[in-house]
Design brief:
By secondary structure, the chain is α/β, with parallel strands linked by helices. It contains eleven helices and 14 strands. The strands form two sheets. It has a ten-stranded mixed sheet with strand order 1-8-2-3-7-4-6-5-9-10, with helices on both faces. A four-stranded parallel sheet has the order 11-14-12-13, covered by helices on one side. Helix 1 packs across helix 6. The two termini are about 30 Å apart. The relative contact order is 0.15. Bound molecules: threonylcarbamoyladenylate (TXA) and magnesium ion. Threonylcarbamoyladenylate binds next to strand 5, strand 6 and strand 10.
């Protein structure tokens, strides 16, 4: 059966859409909803059977734990062992795109934590997300609402394309403003450790709690994966993607002469670095990191539908403001 998409944007439709979604969640169903980062696929976090349905719909490996979304700090503190650092960070960044990993309390199902000793919690800023959690009156386990391994959805249509027929309901809150996933910070160890760069930067976190381990998480055979979602290849379009720090007419000519249909992504400010040549299609991206993040996944999805052989991305600068975007691009480029 096709999955209904309910309008949660218009003030007239919203109350009934939210009421229906809350009912679905309370009866163990799956509802996709907008957050300020990307769309999430929600289920009652306290209902193990409902949480298992998330894994089935996404095709997600059971060893990858889920973020629990809450409506208030007090609700997070019921799921996780709260700390002073958590209080300070929540005061500064919640509601917003920062996920905190803390020791779990009893009562959090193993399905949510993948059997691990910690739980990830976040208080999202999107009004539809917040109203939905409050109305359902349960914490919501919610990964990004895409099939495992593909791009996170930044619009309700993306969710429909990926998960239509597999979930119960989609709430359409319009395109998301953040565009990439939240920052994930592990507060269960000292010093705290960045697990996934995101819209909140390490510098902003350190201004609140002091130094953290900023090193990117490199999966290795010897170290247990601190955050299984950080498997190298992730967030990937279907079209192969190549990253370059600089562009030469020769490198592009080589590809085109091999018959590759290329699309080139560059920041508009970098237009001067693009060799003048009409053998490929160019796509000018926003110059600022926030703007770039907002459009990135949507544009990659659109490019996927246009039948190119390869996406070549002229990397944005190696600066903190661009860390999360460079992280997602390198995961999209990693070999399968
Ligand atoms: O912005 C976001 O974070 C979106 C919206 C929907 O909130 N959610 C999202 O969820 O991106 P997901 O499941 O696609 O990514 C969650 C990441 C994964 O890398 C997962 O491994 C990690 O968080 N994670 C979840 N629980 C964890 C835990 N207890 N310890 C370590 N990492 C955890
Ligand atoms: Mg995801």
């Amino acid at each position: 059966m096709p999955t209904p998409i309910l309008d949660a944007r218009s003030t007239s439709e919203r109350p009934s859409a939210l009421a229906r979604a809350a009912l679905v969640l309370r009866s163990g169903g799956l509802v996709a909803f907008p957050t300020e980062t990307v769309y999430g696929l929600g289920a009652n976090a306290l209902d193990p059977a409902a949480v298992r349905r998330i894994f089935a719909a996404k095709g997600r490996p059971a060893h990858n734990p889920l973020i629990v979304h809450v409506a208030a700090v007090a609700d997070a503190a019921r799921l996780a062992e709260w700390s002073d650092e958590a209080t300070k960070l929540a005061e500064r960044f919640w509601p917003g795109p920062l996920t905190l990993v803390l020791p779990r309390r009893a009562g959090v199902p193993d399905e949510v934590t993948a059997g691990g000793p910690t739980v990830a919690v976040r208080l999202p800023a999107h009004p539809v997300a917040r109203e939905l959690i409050a109305l359902a009156d349960v914490p919501l386990a919610a990964p990004s609402a895409n099939r495992s391994g593909s791009l996170s959805p930044t619009a309700a249509e993306h969710v429909g394309a990926d998960l239509g027929g597999l979930i119960d309901l989609i709430l359409d809150g319009g395109p998301t403003t953040g565009g990439i996933e939240s920052t994930v910070l592990d507060l269960s160890r000292r010093p705290a450790r960045l697990l996934r760069p995101g819209l909140v930067t390490p510098g902003e976190i350190e201004a609140v709690i002091g130094p953290i381990v900023r090193a990117a998480v490199a999966p290795s055979a010897t170290e247990a994966l601190p955050s299984p979602g950080m498997l190298t290849r992730h967030y990937a379009p279907k079209t192969p993607l190549t990253l370059v720090e600089e562009l030469t007419a020769e490198s592009l000519a080589g590809r085109v002469s091999r018959g590759e249909r290329l699309v080139l992504l560059y920041r508009v400010a970098d237009f001067g670095k693009v060799p003048s040549w009409d053998g490929f299609r160019g796509l000018g991206m926003p110059n600022d990191a926030d703007g770039y993040a907002r459009v990135l996944y949507g544009w990659l999805r659109a490019v996927d539908e246009q039948g190119h052989d390869r996406i070549v991305v002229l990397l944005p600068p190696d600066e903190e403001a661009w860390q999360a975007i460079r992280d997602r691009l390198s995961r999209a480029a990693a070999p399968e």
